[in-house]
Amino acid sequence: MRVVPIVLLVATASLPGFAQKWNPFENLGPDIPTPQSIVERMLDAGRVTHEDTVYDLGSGDGRVVITAVQRYGAHAVGVEFQPDLCRKAEQKIHSLGIQDRARIIEDSVFRVDLSPATVVTMFFLTSSNERLRPNLEKYLKPGARVVSNQFPIKGWKPESVVHAKTGTMEHTIYVYEMGRIH
Questions:
Q1: pLDDT in tens, 88-122
Q2: Cα 101 vs. chain centroid, distance in angstroms?
Q3: Which of 37, 56, 82, 167 has the fewest CB atoms within 10 Å of its CB?
Q4: Is residue 19 part of a domain?
């Protein structure tokens, strides 16, 4: 059972540049894109408007960032630590001409100042959400919303829970409001 973390550590250490830049602890999960219909349900559930600044943690291909800007008129920032995904998302943002309202930060979600965010979206395992929780509590102001796809944040009481279906997959979207999480 303990072989998996060692194998993961050895595998990431063998990738040039990756091992020096990222600690395996900072990887919160695999890259699993959120279906577009669920992206929209998440942003609706988070009550995103043109007045919001959305931070998408583990932003992957940038679909949440792009949707927040195009459909809701928000400013949006993606945080992603995989360089290839950052480049692809940035290229898409530039090709759409929305770089004045959207950007991608290549960094760990543990090192980014989240204080400008009024809405944070994420799709991590419950255990990863638990590790991220102190940063959310540190940076987010009362009234900021946290929207988690599929996995709750232990110890927090959701403001609402939205159930959605895409194909045969059931999704549960947890919405939290800072200042009202306990």
A1: 999 999 999 999 999 999 999 999 999 999 999 99
A2: 17
A3: 167
A4: no
Residue 6 one-letter amino acid: I
What is d(CA 137, CA 122) in angstroms, rounded to the nearest whole number? Answer: 15
Q: How far apart are CA 173 and CA 47, in angstroms?
A: 13
Residues 6+ apart with CB under 8 A from 182: 155, 156, 157
* pLDDT for position 72: 98
At residue 167, φ and ψ (nearest 5 deg) are 65, -125
pLDDT of the residue at 19: 39
Distances (CA, A) of 111 to 79, 81, 106: 10, 11, 10
**Which residues span the domain enclosing 100?**
29-177
Measured CA to CA, the distance from residue 101 to residue 104 in angstroms comes to: 11
Beta strand spans in the chain (E): 53-57, 75-80, 102-106, 119-122, 145-149, 160-166, 169-177
Alpha-carbon distance of 31 to 33, in angstroms, equals 6
Residue 31 backbone zone (phi > 0: left; psi -120 to 50: alpha; other: beta): beta
- Residues listed for the chain: 182
Distance CA 21, CA 78 (A): 18
Task: Assign residue 109 the CATH number of its domain.
Answer: 3.40.50.150
Residue 79: count of CB within 10 angstroms of its CB: 24
| Domains contained in the chain, number | 1
